[in-house]
Amino acid sequence: MKKRTRLILALDVTDRQEALRVVSEVAEHVDAVKVGYPAVLPLGMGLVEEISGRADIICDFKVADIPNTNRLIVEEVFRRGASGVIAHGFAGGDSVRACVEAAKGDVLVVTEMSHPGGKTYTHPVADDMARLAVHEGASGIIAPATRPERVRELREIVGELLIVCPGVGAQGGSASDTIAAGADYVIVGRSIYQAEDPKAEASRVVDEIASVL
Ligand code: OMP
User: Fold this and answer.
1) Alpha-carbon span 97 to 109, nearest angstrom
2) Per the confidence metrics, is the pTM higher than 0.85?
C-alpha cells in the first residue's frame, strides 16, 4: 500500500452507483479503500474487482476462523484483486499465520477496537494481540483513533509495523491527533461518504494529516 496521503476510505456503502461515485470522487485523496460486509454482501465481490483498478483495496472481513478456513478466505480476497485484508488475532497465532502465508499483500490484525464496547474485551488483550501480530509476521495492526494514547502505547510494542486507525470523524477521533500519536494511516468512513461533498471532506482530512507531519 502506498503511503502518500495516509487516508483510507471506509466504503460502507450499500448502493452500487453511490459506491462507485464516492470512489471516483475521492480516489485522488486516498491511499486505499476499505471494503467490508456492508458493501460486499449486497454488491458482491465484483465490487472489489471493479474498483481495484482505481484504488488499492483492503478487504475488511475480520477473518477469525480456524487456519484452513482463514486460508481459503484470504486466497479468495487476493485472487479478486485486494491489496490487504483485516484479520482478528483472538483466533490464535496459527490462524493469523495462515492468513499471512496465504496473503499476496498486507495482513492487518485488530488489536483494540475503536467503539466504546472495544474497552470491554479487546482492551485487556490488545497488547497481546499486537505482540501476536509481530510474532506471526503480519504487516500491521488496527488500533483505535478514538484513543490516541493507546496508539502511542501500541507503537512501542509493534515497532516498525503499520498502525492503521479507524474511529476518526463519526466516532469522535481526530485525524491529526491519531497521526501525531504514531499512526501510519487513518480510516475514515461516514464523515466522508455521507458528506455533502465527499471530495472536499477527504481533501480537508488530508490537509489536517499533513499539518502534523
Ligand atoms: P466510520 O466510523 O464510519 O468512520 O467507519 C469506521 C470503519 O472502520 C468501519 O468500516 C468500521 O467497521 C471499521 N473499524 C472500526 O470502526 N473500529 C475498529 O476497531 C475496527 C474497524 C476496522 O477493522 O476497520
Assistant:
1) 11
2) yes
For 91, which DSSP code?
T
**Catalytic one of 62, 104, 119, 199:** 62
pLDDT for the residue numbered 198: 98
pLDDT digits (tens, 9 = 90+) for 80-128: 999 999 999 999 999 999 999 999 999 999 999 999 999 999 999 999 9
Concerning whether 62 is annotated as a catalytic residue, the answer is: yes
Q: Rounded to whole angstroms, what are the CA distances from 138 to 3, 52, 142, 179, 209?
A: 18, 22, 11, 21, 25
Residue whose C-alpha cell is 460502507: 12
Residue with cell 460486509: 37
Q: Does the CB atom of residue 189 touch ligand 1 within 6 A?
A: yes
Nearest alpha carbon to residue 164 among 63, 36, 51, 32: 32
140 lines ligand 1 (CB under 6 A): no
Compute the distance between CA of residue 142 and CA of residue 184 in angstroms, rounded to an integer: 10
Nearest CA to ligand 1 atom 8: 166
Angle of CA points 52, 57, 59, to nearest 5°: 125
Name the amino acid, one letter, at 200: A
Question: What distance in Å separates the CA atoms of residue 157 and residue 11, rounded to the nearest whole number?
Answer: 29
